[in-house]
Amino acid sequence: MDKTVNQKAWFLVLPVLLLVAFSAVIPLMTVVNYSVQDTFGNNQFFWAGLAWFEDLLESERMWDALQRQMIFSAIILAIEVPLGIFVALNMPKKGFWASFCLVVMSLPLLIPWNVVGTIWQIFGRVDIGLLGYTLDALGISYNYTQDFFAAWTTLIVMDVWHWTSLVALLAYAGLQSIPDAYYQAAKIDQASRWAVFRFIELPKMMGVLMIAILLRFMDSFMIYTEPFVVTGGGPGNATTFLSIDLVKMALGQFDLGPAAAFSLMYFLVILLISWVFYTVMVNLDKRES
Amino acid sequence: MAWMAWTWPTAAFFAVIALLLVTFTVLAIKFPETPRTGILRIETTRGDRLFITLLGSAFINLAWLGIVGANQPFALLVCLVYAVAVFRYV
Known about the structure:
Chain A: The chain crosses the membrane at residues 12-36, 70-89, 96-123, 149-175, 196-218, 264-284. Chain A: Keywords: Membrane, Transmembrane, Transmembrane helix, Transport. Chain A: This is Sugar ABC transporter permease. Chain A: Belongs to the binding-protein-dependent transport system permease family. The complex is a heterodimer. By secondary structure, chain A is mainly α. Chain A has a single domain (60-288), classed as MetI-like (MetI-like fold, Orthogonal Bundle). In chain A, 73% of the residues lie in helices and 2% in strands. Chain A has helices at residues 14-35, 51-58, 60-90, 96-110, 113-123, 130-137, 148-176, 180-188, 193-221, 225-230, 242-252, 256-288, and strands spanning 37-39, 45-47. In chain A, strand 1 and strand 2 (45-47) form a beta hairpin. In chain A, helix 9 (193-221) packs antiparallel against helix 12 (256-288). The radius of gyration of chain A is 23 Å and the shape is globular. The two termini of chain A are 20 Å apart. Chain B is 69% helix and 4% strand. Chain B has a two-stranded antiparallel sheet with strand order 1-2. The longest helix of chain B has 23 residues, at 8-30. The model of chain B has no long low-confidence stretch (mean pLDDT 89). The chains are: A mainly alpha, B mainly alpha.
């Protein structure tokens, strides 16, 4: 039976559209306007054409920040996704301990970003922090404000601590939705643990895992608060990721034009990658059904 | 509106985008279509192809600016070729 398509329902999303217009579309349009102009304040603008875009495309500063950002996102995805799956596979399936694990796992997710940053900033201090003090007592030189490697390690471990639960919870939800019949069939075939994971659990988790990867990628690609609180982008520029660099440019130097051009390019990269993830996700869903 | 710092080129830019969106909405209502699968092996509708075209055009313009660095309007010609290709094959 063919249903007649009624597109009038779209009018019901009008309020949301209005809200989005004010919170996203109009600010974005303003950013586009700023990106082709120069200002010295006082709301006076001078036409600059594509000069800012040209400057930025040639500036090492932006490419370096982009590179650092890509490396950071790649590392945390490479750690959090396998770790999250591993945790989900080992969580109890039902009963008291299942609920207990769920609550404990969701705790880091409830903590605001700046608090996470502060926790790790203190935790890592050599004079009063448990981690910093212990490492120092063990004779390991660790100082995230001066050492490149220590700063990166701290940020990565912090992000893993904060967000692995999200991946684990999503993977857990995917695992819970697999009917018992699949496992019984695997048992009859005497499938190995690896085969069960490879041919039953992983394909069934694929949908939620893609969502987890998309969310983690987006969040890590836009990360600002935690590195700002812990390292402030240092030592030097070692942990100056895209958003930290952008804020420095827009609010630190008050270069509105270049900052606007920067944010537009940043936005385009995010849009492209999100679209790729989204398309892959939708197509996976279709292939499954 | 003064705080938005409008200029004629940016206004024209947004007008073109808005016009495209309206045109494609009208097209979708007047001539409904079924999605098809092209060389990217993903199902696309006209709207999807418009999105791919616009996003790709932004990157084409940036690439032209970064690599060639002069005669920016010619980048739009490349975009036009790209748009035709997207609507024909994707």
